[in-house]
Each structure stands twice: as C-alpha cells, then as structure tokens.
Amino acid sequence: MAFKFTIGRKIGTGFGALLLLTLIAFIFTIVTVTKSKQQTDSVVGQVTPSVSALKEFNFILQKSQTLISKWYFNQSPDTDPSKTELRNLISKDYPHIKAEIKTLSEDWNKEEKSKIKTIIQFSDELFKVYQEEIMTPLNSWESYQDASVKFLVTSPFEDSQEKIKMLYVQLNDLINQKELNAEKTKEQMFSSFNFLDRFVKLLGIGLFIGGILIAIFTTRSITKPIQQLKKMLLSMGLGILPKERINYRTDEIGEMGIALNSLVESMESTTEFAKQTGRGNFEAYYKPLSKDDTLGHALLKMRDGLSENERVLEQKVVERTEEVVKQKEEIELKTKELEILFKQVTDSIHYAKRIQDTILPHPIKVKQLLPDSFILFKPKDIVSGDFF
Fold this sequence. Notes:
This protein is mainly α. The chain has helices at about 5-75, 80-105, 110-135, 145-235, 250-280, 295-360, 365-370. α1 (about 5-75) runs antiparallel to α2 (about 80-105), α1 (about 5-75) packs parallel to α3 and α5 (about 250-280) packs parallel to α6. The longest helix has about 90 residues, at about 145-235. The radius of gyration is 61 Å and the shape is elongated.
C-alpha cells in the first residue's frame, strides 16, 4: 500500500520539524564553540612558537655577528672560548633553530614561507663565509700576524656585515608580520565568539518565530486547498468549468483533488465532443465515463441521429444537383442548336448581300454616266429591299 501523507501526519511533521531544527541549532552551537576553541588553541599554539623561534633566530644572528667580530679583531689562539662558542653556534644552535623554524613554517602562508626560505638561504651563505673565508684563515695566533691573510679576510668580513644587516631587516619584517597576523587572528576569534554569543541569543527568538511560521504554513497547506476545492465546486454549480487544477498531494485533500480534476477533465471532454458534434464533426472520438454515464450515451445517440439526418440531406442535395445538371445540359444542347441555325441564316443573308452588291452598279460608274445624280441606298440590316 502506497504511503499517504495525511493531514495528521502533515501537522505532526510540521511540529516535528520545529523540534528537529531546535536540536540541530543546539548541536550546531556546541560544535561551533568546540571548533572555534580548537582553532584558537591551534592558531595561538602555532603562531606564538613561530614568533619565539624567529626571535631566537634573530638573537643567534646577532650573537654570531658579535662573535665573528671578536674573531676578526681580537688576536687570540684557536682555543679561545669565544671561538669555541661561535663554532658551537654554527654547528649546533643554528641547525637546531633552522630545523624548528622549517617545521613551524609548514603551517605558514605562501608569502611567509617564501620569506623564511630566503632568510635561511642567506644565513647558510653567511655562516659558510664565516667558516671558509674568515674562521679557517684566522685559525692560529700567527695567522693574525700575516698581512696577506689579514688582507684576504677583510673583504669577506665587511661583506658579511652588510649581509647580516639585510638579514636583520628581512627577519624583523617577518617577525612583525607574524605578530600582526597573530593579533588579527585573536581579533577574529574574539569576533567569532561575539557573533556566536549574538547567534545564541537570537536563536531562541528565531525558533519561536519559526514555530509560528511552521504552524501558519501547516494550517495554510490545509486551508488553502480546501478553499480552492470549494471555489471549483461553486463554479461548476454555475455551469462554468474551472481552468485551475488541484495540485498533486498525498493526503485526503489530494485524493479529493484528483477526483475533482478528473471530473473537470471529463466535463471538458464532454463539452468539446458536444461542440464538435454541433460543428458537424461526427467522427469525433468520445468514450462514456462508464456504462451508467447517461449524458455520455445520450450524446452518442444524438450524434448518430444528427449524422443520419445529415446523410439523408446530403443524398437529397446530390439528387437535386444531378437534376439541375441534367437540365443544364439540355439547355446547353438547345443553345448549341440555335447557334448553328443562327449561323446558317446569317451566312445566307451575307451571301444575298454579296449578290445584291454585284447586281447594283458601282457608284463611280454612275457618276461617270450621270454626273449630277446621287444614289439613296439605306439597307436596314445586312441587305436592303428593292428600293435603290
């Protein structure tokens, strides 16, 4: 048996939808709060260590600058504590902080990744210059006394000072950017929480209004189609077939609508059949609604009667037409006979005229014989009498 969405089920569904919306809103609120908290913890937990690591990186660069300056300016043996500290910084502290920053930068944006990649590249080159062009040549007490060695390391040392200044600028710019992003993220999170607070407050009002709207919609979904049914029935009571139809529904109103729509369509079919019969189209198809369809069977009888009458009339018209055609043919035959007789008579008269014209003297001959004479000759039609 097909499922029917009855009126009772419709009302229950309306209020069930209201409860479901309330539950969904409640779950949405909890999920949003939890997710926002996790995002806040994640962002803050990622941004703060990143800023700290960048500041430590900056400190290592500053410390390396100080230690390399001591290495260059202060004549000391290779075992000097500051030199050992610089070696440890390059071999241990710098790789450690570089690895930490690379790990943290995986969650950075594209621009920040590009900047830190450039900074690390320049830093690698800087420490390579430290090791190969400054620290290695100045590796003993005697090397400081060698003017050629001192000359060779001066240029790399000065270049490294310029390069490290550029690194400071880029690194500080990145630190400021990260701090600014962290501040913006915090503001966005607080804004999100404030929005959620307003949302929760408005949620109750929205659910209340939504409940009213659902109740109104449910009521109208019942009342409106009933009013439409009433209007269609009143219209049919006045003999007017309605143009509108009841939309398909799965409840009791839908069943009544289907029955009424079927009735209207049947009446339209009957009306159209009557019109076609009235116009003389006796071949129009029509099927009675049932064996008890009195109107339908009466219309079929009427059509058959009208068809027989028209057949008889057409037969009479054919017979009368044949009689008229026969009379017309007889008249045409007599007319042709008269035309032949008329032509024969006319030909005889023309022949008589030629004989008459031949017997009479030519006017020029008369003028020659009787110059002062004239001839009075006025035939009535084609030939004249004896008067000349």
